[in-house]
Amino acid sequence: MMEQRDVVIIGGGPAGLSAARRLAARGMSSLTVIEREPVAGGIPRHCGHVGFGWQSHRRIWSGPRFAEELRRSVEGLDIRTGTTVLGMSADGVLRIRDRGGLGEIRARRILIATGTRETPRAARFIGGSRPAGVMTTGALQQHVYLHAHRPFSKPVIIGTELVSFSAILTCRHLGIRPVAMIEEGPRISAPRPGDLVARLVYGVPVLLSSRVTKIIGTHSVEAVEIETAGRRSRIACDGVIVTGRFVPERAVFAQGPNVFTAGNVNAPLKTSGQCWRDGRDAADLILASLS
Ligand SMILES: Cc1cc2nc3c(=O)[nH]c(=O)nc-3n(C[C@H](O)[C@H](O)[C@H](O)COP(=O)(O)OP(=O)(O)OC[C@H]3O[C@@H](n4cnc5c(N)ncnc54)[C@H](O)[C@@H]3O)c2cc1C
Q1: Pairing of β 31-34 and β 3-10
Q2: 70 C-beta closer than 6 A to ligand 1
């Protein structure tokens, strides 16, 4: 027989776990959180730098410490890690895959809290070869913070959003030294005053109005070709970090009156504290709709 729940939350990041905590605190027991990673906590789990927790807990924590606190707040609830939602129908049936295979759950209310992801190289039309060592900030953070692995030592960074500076911090953690940041626009994309602070503090040369046209290298990255004002040049490097251009992670989901959303899936890229509040507010809306 198909499993039935009052509420299923898809995504165990700050938004999803905050919603779960709120629902449970208000007496909801027929509740399941589905998280595709082996451990819940979302992006903060692999953001090893500080900058988390203030808006939600009035503490200044690293990402992993914040994620730990989120997990602690939902202890005892039905959090299914290692489980991916593959799709859903408008009438509330979720198709899932876990270690045991495929399955279905019917939910009266669904909260989509699946966050966002950076646009990878494949979707950016960068020419050249396909060597190893080209990755998003998120993937880099998994290498560095979750596996203590140094995928390269002198990469270039494409983009200058706030997350691009987070990439620099991540690099520093294992002594990786980015050789340049490359920005298509005429100025740094991170909002002021972050752009000034970043330039002063991080000290990586920023090449503005420049575009990576080609990645060069057979097995690993050897250089990138860039174009600035119609002129092409090469920068020697051994990796490429493609940063930012966040897109919501919601391709497989239907919409409907019983479907709610919270966190970055709505508007990339908010802070983790804003997403945490979003989750709490969404939980209240769900409870009101059920009463
Ligand atoms: C590099 C970087 C640095 C950052 N630094 C800071 C900072 O210093 N301070 C700060 O406040 N914020 C920071 N942020 C932002 C913060 O991490 C996000 O705002 C926050 O994590 C968003 O929470 P969320 O719950 O909406 O999504 P996420 O944290 O992305 O969580 C979504 C979860 O949904 C899961 N999921 C997705 N699809 C499925 C599916 N189909 N089935 C099952 N599960 C699924 C994912 O595995 C993930 O665990 C940073 C973000 C990045 C990328």
Answers
A1: parallel
A2: no
Q: How far is the CA of 225 from the centre of ligand 1 (A)?
A: 32
Interatomic CA distance for residues 150 and 174, integer angstroms: 7
The model's pTM is: 0.87
Q: Whose CA is nearest to atom 1 of ligand 1?
A: 163
CATH class of 3-115+249-290: alpha beta
- Is the minimum distance from the CB of 96 to ligand 1 under 6 angstroms? no
Q: 14 in ligand 1 pocket by Cβ < 6 Å?
A: yes
From ligand 1's centre to the CA of 265, what distance in Å? Answer: 9
Which atom in ligand 1 lies closest to the alpha carbon of residue 50? 8
Any atom of ligand 1 within 6 Å of the Cβ of 241: no
User: For 219, which DSSP code?
Assistant: S
pLDDT digit string (tens) for 71-101? 999 999 999 999 999 999 878 899 999 999 9
The domains spanning 3-115+249-290 and 119-242 adopt the same CATH topology: yes
198 pLDDT band, cuts 50/70/90, is: low
For residue 202, the model assigns a pLDDT of 72
How far is it, in rounded angstroms, from Cα 234 to Cα 223?
Answer: 6
pLDDT digits (tens, 9 = 90+) for 230-279: 999 999 999 999 999 999 888 777 788 899 999 999 877 788 999 999 99
- Asked if residue 206 lies in contact with residue 77, where contact means CB atoms within 8 angstroms, the answer is no
**pLDDT tier for residue 33 given thresholds of 50, 70 and 90:** very high
Go through 186-216 and write b for each residue having 16 or more CB atoms within 10 A of its CB, e for each that does not.
eebbbeeeebeebbeebebebbeebebeebb
Is the Cβ atom of 189 under 6 angstroms away from ligand 1? no
Give me the residue spans of the domains in the chain. 3-115+249-290, 119-242
Query: Architecture of domain 119-242 in CATH?
Result: 3-Layer(bba) Sandwich (3.50)
